Every structure is written in structure tokens, then in C-alpha cells.
Amino acid sequence: MTLMTALRAFALLVSLASLLLALTAPALAQAEDGESSGDIALETDAPSDAAIAQRIATIFGEIDTLSGVEISVESGVVTLTGETLTADAASRAEALALRVEGVVTVENRIDRDLSVSTRVAPAVGELEATVQDFVRIIPLLALAIAVFVTLGVLGWLLSRWDALWRLLTPNQFVAELVGSTVFSLFVVFGLVSALTLLDATAFLGALLGAAGVIGLAVGFAVKDTIENYIASIMLSVRQPFRPNDHVVIDGQEGRVIRLTSRATVLMTLEGNHLRLPNALVFKAVILNYTRNPERRFDFTLGVDPEDDPLSALETGLSALKALSFVMTDPDPAAGIREVGDSTINLVFSAWIDQTAADFLKSRSVAIATVKAALDSAGFTLPDPTYRLRIDSGALPTAVAKPEPAPAADRAPARAAKAPSPEITDVAPDTSLAERVEEERREGKSGDLLSEDAPRE
Q1: Is 15 exposed, middle or buried (0-12, 13-18, 19+ CB in 10 A)?
Q2: Across 205-231, average pLDDT
Q3: Is 216 inside any structural domain?
Q4: Which of 20, 70, 93, 429 shows the greatest Cβ crowding within 10 Å of its Cβ?
Q5: Average pLDDT over residues 73-81
Q6: Quick count: other Cβ atoms within 10 Å of Cβ 181?
Q7: Nearest Cα residue to 368 out of 336, 305, 324, 416
Q8: pLDDT tens track for 106-149
């Protein structure tokens, strides 16, 4: 039973093996057939040497610089011979050949053509082509020049229309500036239009970029000049002073001669020329004495502490009001400024009209008149008194200071003296103003100040 079972099992295994062999045989045969057919297809689809040579020749035929190159192909290896004008052309031929399908490698044996004829002919051809292109572009170039000139002339005519710009702007300086700006804009627009017609947009972009860089560099280099120029425009519009005005600008006092595009020119009270940069003038504090002809002066006089200060004030005010050049509206005023160690300091003030009276002369006459009135009334300015104290040692011998007599019992120290007619002449000094007018007549051009401009 055991032997029979083993034989049956062996027979079953043989049957199974035969069945598996029968099933797998067609698949193996098909795989072998497929592998054999793939190799054949690859040989059939691969380009031949002749096809490779034809393809490269076709490509080189379309390129003038490679027309003299000869091609030979052997088993996918391409050999290039012949001559080209430049080494770059030979390198380009090699690169193009490597890109063709089926090429294994490239042997570059191309030489450079150094013959004169082959080098002169292309140059002559290029020159002829350039001349022909220039001849063809002459009408377009003439049109571009005509557009540029037309716009430039139109801008120049508009910039010279002074009546229009004076009507639209506050003064002559700004009118000239607007006219120049209009002319510049038309020139730039004409240049852009001409270059656009010539299809030179790349050059136009480079030109605008270079102009921007140069403008930025110049702006940093001359920023002070530009600041002065802008300040000149603002000052010419604002007109904070007029010609011959008596002003104090940044601590500098004088009369205004003129305002230029860079500086304000003053004549100092000593008769000297003073140039102040307009940027400084525009930002400075400006004190204009001429703007309001009414001006107040004040001064301080001292009386003895034993005197009656209120009586001294009344005496001084009466003398001040009696002066013909002192204005009655507003009235003169007086007061006690301070009580010092040996005096009582009184302050007096009054107003004058500078068109009829000189400030310095009027103040001088007022001081002399009030002092004379106080002296006549027995009010005097005492000498300073000092006290000496010694803490140790012998006291020095000193003469006792007599007690001052009562003010009522005191006699005037001196007789009252009225100011002489020469001193009371307080007419304005016009010599400096006349010198300024003479300076303005000699150099009137370039002045940005105008009597007709509105005041600030």
C-alpha cells in the first residue's frame, strides 16, 4: 500500500511538471521572439550615417558663416573639415553637429580662412547694407528731425510769451522761470517723439536712465545752490521787504539794495555791502523798521533814593511831551524800572514818526531834554556809594559823609540848559537811503524786488 501510494504520488508530480512545461513554453518563445524583434527594430530606426550627414549639411546650408564646412560621418562619428572666417563659427558648427540625433561625437578639424578676399568681401557687403539701410531711413530721419524742431520752436515761442506768464504768475522772476520750464518740457517731448519715430526706444531708456543718475549726482553736488535758488523764488513771491527798507536779518542790520537769484544784498549803516545767502534769509527772523514808520524809543535815568520818584516821573513826562517830534497818540509813558543800591532808575518811552524824525537823533534829544528838566527841578543822579567793612584790625580813619539835605531844601546843582537849535534838529538822515537808490540805478538788472508786488 505504501509502495503503491508512492508510485501514484511520483506519477502525479511528473504530470504536474509536464503540464507546467507545456504552459510556460509559449511564453518563453514569445519573450525570445520579442527580444529578437526589439534588437532588429533598434537597428532599423537608428539614423544612418548618410542621413546624419544630410541633416547636418542642411543645417549648415542655412548659415552663411558655415557654408564652407564639409561633413563626413562614420559609425555616428562626425568629422568636420573646411574653413570658417572665425574660431567662433567653428565652435558653433561643432555645437550644432552634437545636437543632431545619432551623433556619437564630433571631430572638429575646421581651419580659419585667412585669405584677404574672403575677409574684405563681407566687410564691403556689410558696408553696402549699412548704406542702403541709411538711405531707406533718410525720410524717417527727416520726419523725426522735423518733429523735434517743430516742438522746440513751439516751446520757444510759448516761453517768450511774457504777457501770458506775467498774467499767471506773481512776478517777473517766476514768469521767466515758468517760461524756461515750458521750453525745456517741449524740447524733452520733441526728443522723445523723434526717438520713438526712429524706433530707438532702447536708446531712449538708456538716455533717460543716464539723465536721472546725472541729475541725482548734480543735485547732491549743488544742493546749496539749488536751496538758494528755491529760496529766491519764495522770497520773490513773499516780498518780506522792499528796496531801501531798513531791516535786521539774522542779526545783520542795513538797508536792502536788491534781491538776486542767489543772495540778498544789504548796505550796512556804515555804508558797506553785505551779501546774505537767500537760504539763510528765508529761514531767518527778519525785523523791518521801515514797514511801520511809527517807532518807539525808551531810555533810563536815575535819581537819588531820597527824591520823590513820582514827582520826577511827572517832571520828565512834561518835558518829553513838550518835544515837537514826540507823538501824542500814543502818549509818552514813564515808570520806575527798579530801585538800585544808590539810585532809583526811571524809564521813559515815546513814539516818533520815522518819516519826519530820525530815531537816533530823537532819542538823543529826548534824553538831554528830560535830564535837563530833572536837573532844573533839583533831581540829580548821585554818585555810586560803597560801604567798606573791616572785620579785624584797626579801623581806618574816614571822613564822615554828611547827611544829604532834604530834597526841598536842596538847590539845583546847575542851571537848566535848553537844547540848542542844532541839537533839536531831528530830521531824518537820508544819506544812506540816497546811496542805496544810486546803487539800485547802477545795477537794476537781476533784481527780484518790485514796488508793485503784494506785501507779505
Answers
A1: exposed
A2: 75
A3: yes
A4: 93
A5: 90
A6: 13
A7: 416
A8: 999 988 877 666 666 666 777 777 888 778 888 888 888 898 89
CB within 8 A of 39, min separation 6: which ones? none
Annotate 380-404 with b (16+ C-beta within 10 A) or e (fewer). Answer: beeeeeeeeeeeeeeeeeeeeeeee
DSSP 143-161: HHHHHHHHHHHHHHHHHT-
Q: pLDDT value at position 3?
A: 43
What does the DSSP 8-state code read for residue 170?
Answer: S
Q: Print the domain residue range for 157.
A: 135-221
Residue 162: predicted pLDDT: 77
- Report the domain count for the chain: 4
State the DSSP H helix or E strand holding residue 247, giving kind and residue range, or none if neither: strand 246-249
Q: Tell me the pLDDT band of 385, cut-offs 50, 70 and 90.
A: low
**Strand pairing class (286-288; 333-339):** unpaired
On the 0-12 / 13-18 / 19+ scale of CB atoms within 10 A, 176 is: middle
pLDDT of residue 42: 31
Task: Kindly state whether residues 164 and 283 are assigned to the same domain.
Answer: no
Check which CATH number belongs to the domain holding 312 and give it. Answer: 3.30.70.100
Which amino acid is it at 352?
Answer: I
- The whole-model pTM stands at 0.54
321 shares a domain with 303? yes
pLDDT digits (tens, 9 = 90+) for 289-344: 988 889 999 999 999 888 899 999 999 999 999 999 999 988 999 999 888 778 89
- What secondary structure does DSSP assign to 49-73, as a single string? HHHHHHHHHHHHHT-GGGTTEEEEE
Check whether residue 274 and residue 158 sit in a common domain. no
d(CA 89, CA 99) in angstroms, rounded, equals 16
Q: How far is CA 84 from the centre of its chain?
A: 57
Strand-pair partners of 335: 347
Q: Please tell me whether residue 169 adopts helix, strand or coil conformation.
A: coil
Predicted confidence at residue 15, as pLDDT, reads 54
